[in-house]
Amino acid sequence: MRFLPVLLIIILAPLLGGLITKIKNNLRMRQGQSIFQPYYNLVKYFNKEEVVSGTSSWIFKMAPFAIFASSLAALFYMREFLALIFIFALGRFFLSLAALDTGSTFGGMGSSREMFISSLSEPVACLACFAVSLQNGSTDLLAWKSLPLANTSALIAGVALFLVMIAETSRIPIDNQETHLELTMIHEAMILEYSGRSLALIEAASYIRQMIWLLIIAQVLLPLTDPVGISGSQWLLWSCWYAARIVIVAAVIALLEIAVAKMRLFRAVDFFGFGFVLAAIAVLCAVLGY
Amino acid sequence: MPGAELINIINKKLPDFKVVAVTRPYPDELVIQVKAEDFKKVCLAVHEHLSSSVMSFFAVDDRQQQGKFILYCYFINVPLHQWVAVRLDISPADPYFEAISKDIYSAHLFEREIWEMFGLEPKGNPDLRRLRLHDEVWPVGNYPLRKDFQTVTEGEKKDYKFTRVEGEGIFEVPVGPVHAGIIGPGHFRFSVAGEPIINLEARLGFTHRGVEKLFEGKSLPAGLQLAECISGESAFAHSLAFCQAAEKIAGITVDKKTAYWRSILLEVERMYNHVNDIGGIALDVGFSFPAALAAIIKESILQANEKLTGNRYLKGVNKLGGISLKMDQSRHEELTTSLGRIREDFAVLVNILEESVSFMDRVDGTGTLKKEIAEDLGVLGLAGRASGIPIDLRKIFPGVYQEAGIKIITAQTGDVLARLKVRIEEFAESGRLTAEFLSKISTAETTGSKSGPAVDGALGYSEGWRGPVLYWLKTGTEGLIERCKIVDPSFHNWPGLSYAVLGEIIPDFPLCNKSFDLSYSGSDL
Predict the structure, then answer these.
(1) Chain B residues with CB within 8 Å of chain A CB
(2) For chain A (length 290 residues), average pLDDT per consecutive 10?
(3) Which residues contact A13 (CB under 8 A, 6 or more apart)?
(4) Is B180 part of any domain?
(5) Which of B284, B288, B514 to probe by mutation at the A interface, max A CB count within 10 Å?
(6) What pTM does this model have?
(7) What is the CATH number of the domain that holds B64?
């Protein structure tokens, strides 16, 4: 029973990426690619020959498996948020290492920027998690004992987590997945040397990671209790709302990506400074009982 | 004597200077021929008196007829609406001249060009690395623009030496010539301390096709076709400059209707390129909605181009002494309405950009090119005007622009925002000019005049969207092209980019680059 949701997330994760892209394209007055395009891409990458730089070591070849494994492991630890942060950090560590390993111009730049960004975003994530945990009595962000819809603390913490998620999924205003400008890239710069199966693994891992973040943020901002002891029709309703929340968060992300420009790299400090203040306020609210 | 006033001024500065000859081959050109020992001093005097950077500086291999190389260094005399050339004859026995670039920096790249293409050494120029004939490929001792150059003779090949910056924590970041996007090839060598850029050296020349050599021996109509292909987005500006040079030589004065149409098409080219760059600037900071809107506007202009001329990029429209357009009343009206719609869409685009705080934060104060530096480097055109250099050939040599009263748009700050604002206002101004020309065109005269052909070389010029495009043309006795020197504004402006990015961080380089949007092919030739 535990494997079913995991399997569902793995299967649906690329669809979510396709959906966000589709919404963005439609907002930009464009027809855009099919929402299934991420699947086609993954299949294409899997069937392609892999090109590996002659100067790279075993780290480069091993890293995609480590990154994919970290995303898979995260799926089993979704109910333990602190563990999740560090599991993601593990994947990021290997990706940065692999990017340095090839000795290419952009890999090193990508790694240093990724470390810079994550050193700012991780404290925000931890603090926001504490705020929610104080309300909830556990670091399991997916389980709510009751449904505090108008919970100030959780709302503020949710917004702080949203900011972290933007960095984690390399989206505007921190990073830009769509750019072709190699000098501005963060995440894309690190995977620039990858091709074929390794690239497919890294992309799949990114989709899963994105899905997990969206699930958590949807749960914090629009909480829903576990479907324990509800009947068939109610269960259907529950599932629909469960999915709809994720689509809502996805739509907000797409809207944000269209509405603002990417910020200057060093502005990320202000961005996460704001996130940290939000998270601190959330903790304060939680302590005071709001 | 023509130009007596200028000679007097030079004589005041240089009492023992004796001019060899002063000619005025065309009403808008003055050529001062000087002796070798006076060349540098006269150039400096003219440069200081006119406060003009070097607009064009090139050599002509005339060893077959006159047994010498000829150097021309062109300046612009803004108040007198005239080009001033300093001419120096060089004997093939002593193939060198005194470098002027130590005093006039804007001559630097031209001197390197003359050295690599003709083997005429600018004595005193400390940097004679080749620009286009890459040392790894071209052996030393090959000078392809000499008339007797046939094929590459094998010889020693060297490595290119980049400027090195050394110090603790300084890294070199090599980027290109192959980039992640589908853009032209250029190699950029950054010296960085972390993210901030300490030095940038651009190495270009990867799209060198030897076009100046290709022009030689071509008839004028064939040359016109080639001129349109030098830099694709400036096809019309290039063809217009070529036509003007060719028409000066042939003694043709075009009729007013043609002049109107040429101005309209030149403005339309400016409009589609400006909106393309505005969209490009937005896209480079990840602001994709206005970028998509800009793409729509650009496409509608291109479609209007195709309806009007049969070519989206205005190729094949200019003819020597005229223009090939079949216009009737309905097409005329269609163009007027579509341009009106385009201007409305453009207002929406500008509004989105100006209202966006996140966008303005990226462009304001980024990539500043100060006026003094821009002047020293000889930065011209749009980038120059954004740094406060009010040079616009449409104002200096107005023609039909006279009656429309063209407004020069300048900014003072020289940052990305300034270049963006100049584009925005120039788009509006171009829209106004086009509408005005269109309203006048039906009553314009259709008779031009023709005098006898001339033998001297002639300078043709147009203010393209990026800046002044210059063509110096000389034909032989059979009317075939003997020498064609092209100066695209990109050639002047590439050094400006290298200065504008100093102190900026690496991820802001693409934005600075886009705000200049220079042409590789126009600069590499």
Answers:
(1) 173-175, 179-182, 195, 282, 284-289, 292-293, 296, 356, 358-359, 361-362, 505-510
(2) 81 94 93 94 94 89 94 88 90 93 86 92 92 82 63 88 92 89 88 92 95 90 78 85 92 93 91 95 88
(3) A204, A207, A208, A210, A211
(4) yes
(5) B288
(6) 0.90
(7) 3.30.460.80
